[in-house]
């Protein structure tokens, strides 16, 4: 149950109010932004809530139990606020949003209404719409291990334990040229073909600075050729710098040979396949008694 101060409760009980809504948005990269539907800026909790953001919110729905509540935030795209490039490049994906009811005449009287996470974001020419998911959506995420051949961990996470900050698994690079969906670049170190396939590329300069992209393919020739899975908001130009991290296809052989990390492999590479499961018993075949297939 929310704790409401006596002064805040008295204002809630009035027939007329001086309330407005404020939204505190915290991105995963540590950037914090504030917005309000009031006609002037407000400040509390070391955050300035801007009134000129053009942000508004639709009615949020909630229900008892663990069903996922939903809402929506609508806003204008601005070069000094929420930009189309940042939205397109996923900088707001999974951002946390606090929704406050605030007395604009005395901001010390405020009430935290909800905490949500930004879900799907859609854009039009001059505006955007962001889905707000309640914290109950976290209960929809898979938990535990799956019985599968491939690894269920993500490269570099707490279960995988590979240190992606090591120079053996990352490099810096500079774009030399672009052609269609491919980038020609020079890297700070030489790596084998396919080493960065499935990896993550982050631009550190240029029009896409801060943007992240997944690497579709990595080839070595006279120069390094990288293909990205999806286009970025701005054009990639020669001279743009980036950092790139190794990719993993989640196979046991890759875990052993590429990362020397088989002890932390989170899959079951020796699980029986369909042929074994539907196979007919035969005296010439190995005994199917539940024991090891590699005796």
Give a quick account of the main beta sheet: strands, pairing sense, barrel closure.
Answer: 9 strands, mixed
Strand content: 25-35%
Order of helices and strands: HEEEEEEHEEEEEEEEEHH
Helix content: under 10%
CATH class of the largest domain: Mainly Beta
Low-confidence stretches: none
Q: CA-to-CA gap between the ends?
A: 60 Å
* Class by SSE composition: mainly beta
| Anisotropy-based shape | flat
Q: Oligomeric form of this entry?
A: single chain
What is the β-strand count?
15
Supply the CATH architecture of the largest domain. Answer: Beta Barrel
How many domains in all?
A: 2
The mean pLDDT is: 81
CATH third-tier fold name of the largest domain: Thrombin, subunit H
Note down, in words, how this protein is organized.
This protein has 295 residues and is mainly β. The chain has 2 domains: 16-138, Thrombin, subunit H (Beta Barrel); 167-251 and 258-264, Thrombin, subunit H. It is built from 4 helices and 15 strands. The protein has helices at residues 6-13, 84-88, 252-257, 274-277, and strands at residues 19-26, 32-36, 42-44, 47-50, 56-57, 70-76, 96-103, 110-123, 127-134, 170-179, 182-187, 200-203, 212-220, 224-228, 241-245. The strands form 2 sheets. The chain has a 9-stranded mixed sheet. Strands 10-11-14-13-12-15 form a 6-stranded antiparallel barrel. The longest helix has 8 residues, at 6-13. The radius of gyration is 26 Å and the shape is flat.
């Amino acid at each position: 149950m929310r704790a409401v101060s006596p002064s805040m409760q008295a204002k809630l009980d009035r027939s007329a109010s001086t309330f407005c809504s404020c939204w505190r948005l915290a991105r995963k990269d540590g950037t914090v932004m504030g917005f309000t539907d009031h006609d002037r800026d407000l400040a509390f909790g070391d955050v300035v809530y801007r009134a000129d953001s053009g942000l508004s919110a639709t009615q949020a729905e909630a229900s008892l139990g663990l069903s996922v509540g939903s809402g929506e935030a609508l806003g204008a795209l601005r070069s000094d606020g929420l930009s189309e490039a940042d939205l397109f490049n996923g900088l707001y994906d999974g951002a946390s949003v606090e929704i406050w009811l605030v007395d604009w005449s005395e901001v010390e009287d405020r009430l935290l209404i909800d905490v949500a996470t930004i879900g799907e974001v859609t854009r039009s020419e001059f505006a955007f719409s962001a889905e707000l998911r309640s914290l109950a959506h976290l209960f929809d995420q898979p938990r535990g291990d799956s019985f599968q051949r491939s690894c269920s961990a993500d490269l570099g996470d707490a279960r995988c334990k590979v240190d992606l900050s090591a120079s053996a698994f990352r490099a810096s690079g500079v774009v030399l040229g672009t052609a269609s969906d491919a980038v020609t670049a020079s890297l700070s170190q030489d790596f084998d073909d396919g080493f960065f396939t499935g990896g993550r590329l982050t631009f550190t300069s240029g029009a896409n600075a801060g943007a992240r992209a997944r690497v579709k393919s990595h080839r070595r020739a006279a120069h390094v050729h990288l293909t990205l899975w999806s286009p970025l908001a701005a054009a990639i130009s020669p001279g743009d710098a980036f950092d790139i991290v190794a990719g993993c296809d989640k196979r046991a052989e890759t875990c052993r040979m590429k990362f020397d990390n088989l002890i932390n492999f989170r899959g079951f590479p020796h699980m029986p396949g369909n042929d074994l499961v539907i196979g007919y018993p035969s005296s010439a075949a190995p005994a199917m008694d539940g024991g090891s297939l590699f005796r």
